[in-house]
Each structure stands twice: as C-alpha cells, then as structure tokens.
C-alpha cells in the first residue's frame, strides 16, 4: 500500500526519461468493457427576465438492460448537477462522490459565461459524470439514471419529491449531535490512518495547487513581456542597416519562443491546474466522508453506552444496536473499497499529470534551444564569409 511519502518521492531506480516513466506505470490489465458512455457538450446560453444561465447537452449511449433505450439526449444546467451530487451523497454517505466545479466566485479570473469559463466547466461536468459512470456502485444509482434520461419537466417533478422538512431536520439534528459529541472512542485504526493520511494529503495538495497557480502567473507575465521584444527588434533593424538582418533574426527567434511559451501555458492551464484543483476538492470530500463514517460510529457508541446504563428496555436497545452495527459495518466496507479505488486513481492521475508537465517542459526548452542555436550558427557562417572576403587581395 503506497504511502503519501512514496507518492511524492523518486525512487533511485526510476528511469530518467519521462517516456520511460509513463511506460513504467501503465497497468498491465486492460479496463473492463464499458456499457455506459456519456458526453457533455454543446453549451447554450439562456436569458430570462429573472436570470441568465447555461445548459449543456448530455448524451448517453448504453447497452444496459435497465435502460428503455440505447441512447438519450437531454439538456442540464449546473443546478441539476448539484442536485445529482447531493442525491448521491444522501444515498451513499460513505462513498467518495466525485467533485463538481465550484460556483464561479474566484476574483481576478475570466468573466462568468465567457467562452473560456464555459469550456472549463463543460470539461469538469463531463469528467464528473464519467467518474460516476465508471464507479461500480454509483453507476447503478436510480437518481443518476433519471438525471441521464428524464426530460426537463420530468426531472423537475422528480426533484420536488425530495425528503420532507421533518426528515431533513432530523438528519441535521443527528449530524450536529454527532459532531459536538467529541472524538469517536472505538474508531478502527484503519480509519484513524485514513484521517491522518488525508490531513497530510490536503496540506500537500493545497501547497501544490498554490505553487502551480504562481508558476502559471509568472509564466504569463514573462510571455506578455516577451511579446514586446520581437517588434522592438524589428523596429530597431530599420535604423541599423549594418546589423538589420541579425536584428530581424533575433526578432524571429523571440517570436518562435513566444509561441512555444504560449503553448506551454496552455498545457499548464488545461492539464496541470484542473487536476490539482480537482484533488483539492477531493480532499475536502474525503474529510467529509470520514466524518460521516465517524457519525455513524458515534451513534452506535452512544447506544452501547446507554444500554450499559439502563436496566429497562434492553431488548429495544439491543435491536437498535444490532441495526447500527450492521450500518457501521456497511459504511466501513463501502469506504474501504472506495478508498483503495480512489487512491489508485489519484496516484495514476498524479503520475500522468506530472509526467506530462515534465515532457512538455522538455519539448519547450528543446524547441527554444534549437531556435537560438540555429540562429547563432547562421551568424557564425556569415561572420566567416565576411572574414574570408576581407582576406582576399
């Protein structure tokens, strides 16, 4: 079982080449044949007197027998995805539900509803649904099926059939009571280790997320400054006839390096930043899952304590304890299986992401180096030609 330290350290025997690193971590077994394919695309703006919002087309293709058709096409807005996530958490409190992109609250970023923001959200929603589809339990959730197949009015009707007010209040009261009760006395060691792991993971992934954003910001500033140097050298060449060709050559090199830098920035914004932030959100989700497991454990512990202090109603308490013991066991088994699956996916995503970043950096520096070496070689040839012509009688 790989520890967090092992994930973030390099083995002395690890191949130096990034391509070799990818080959080293490829899984030997091919994934099982999928029977559910989901695509999120075609964002569309809707403007009403009350609000402006975006809907996305969700296309589902399946060969499963529980579906009435093999293909569905519906339109969903962000609030519908939020509803699905809440229903999955309600039905499976100790499973790891994939994160959704947050509501747009970050300052200094792109404006809401511009093309870049919409495309970023579309990709995140696409990944969210496909992670659910690939999950061995969540994929068979009835609300997930309704989300994929129901027309807008049907989904709206179904969403109104949520738990009643008293039921929601009861859940809230139990959650608050469990949270203020204190630490769980009989928590198995495995879940204490999970909790410690997630605290460390959360700290590290948040640091990585901040560093990646700082790198991207500095890269953009460098790119913006470099864009000005090419035209400056071109203008300069107009007033320096003797070195005009050399100055134009420098301008051309700067332009090529500028394009390479822009390409590297695109790689960071499309591949590195979203993955790191996704696992920042995952760390919050996992801490919540562990707390919900502890709440179930705490409820069982309190019943056991109450039974020990009461001489009457033992049969009633024993029956409740038996049900809670089953509930705790189910919660433990669900979380253990999901934990192993999540950690394997996380390690695979991290390896792939950082390997891609390393390869992109290598390509970037090789391209820039080749550009300047070619220019310098041409200048050396020109210099030798001039020297030879001066030596002739």
From TrEMBL:
<dbReference type="InterPro" id="IPR027267">
    <property type="entry name" value="AH/BAR_dom_sf"/>
</dbReference>
<dbReference type="GO" id="GO:0032456">
    <property type="term" value="P:endocytic recycling"/>
</dbReference>
<dbReference type="GO" id="GO:0005769">
    <property type="term" value="C:early endosome"/>
</dbReference>
<protein>
    <submittedName>
        <fullName>SNX7 protein</fullName>
    </submittedName>
</protein>
<dbReference type="GO" id="GO:0034727">
    <property type="term" value="P:piecemeal microautophagy of the nucleus"/>
</dbReference>
<dbReference type="InterPro" id="IPR042131">
    <property type="entry name" value="BAR_SNX7"/>
</dbReference>
<dbReference type="GO" id="GO:0061709">
    <property type="term" value="P:reticulophagy"/>
</dbReference>
<keyword id="KW-0175">Coiled coil</keyword>
<dbReference type="Pfam" id="PF00787">
    <property type="entry name" value="PX"/>
</dbReference>
<dbReference type="GO" id="GO:0035091">
    <property type="term" value="F:phosphatidylinositol binding"/>
</dbReference>
<dbReference type="GO" id="GO:0015031">
    <property type="term" value="P:protein transport"/>
</dbReference>
<dbReference type="GO" id="GO:0000407">
    <property type="term" value="C:phagophore assembly site"/>
</dbReference>
<dbReference type="GO" id="GO:0000422">
    <property type="term" value="P:autophagy of mitochondrion"/>
</dbReference>
<comment type="similarity">
    <text>Belongs to the sorting nexin family.</text>
</comment>
<dbReference type="InterPro" id="IPR042130">
    <property type="entry name" value="PX_SNX7"/>
</dbReference>
<feature type="coiled-coil region">
    <location>
        <begin position="307"/>
        <end position="334"/>
    </location>
</feature>
<keyword id="KW-0813">Transport</keyword>
<dbReference type="InterPro" id="IPR001683">
    <property type="entry name" value="PX_dom"/>
</dbReference>
<feature type="domain" description="PX">
    <location>
        <begin position="34"/>
        <end position="155"/>
    </location>
</feature>
<keyword id="KW-0653">Protein transport</keyword>
<dbReference type="InterPro" id="IPR036871">
    <property type="entry name" value="PX_dom_sf"/>
</dbReference>
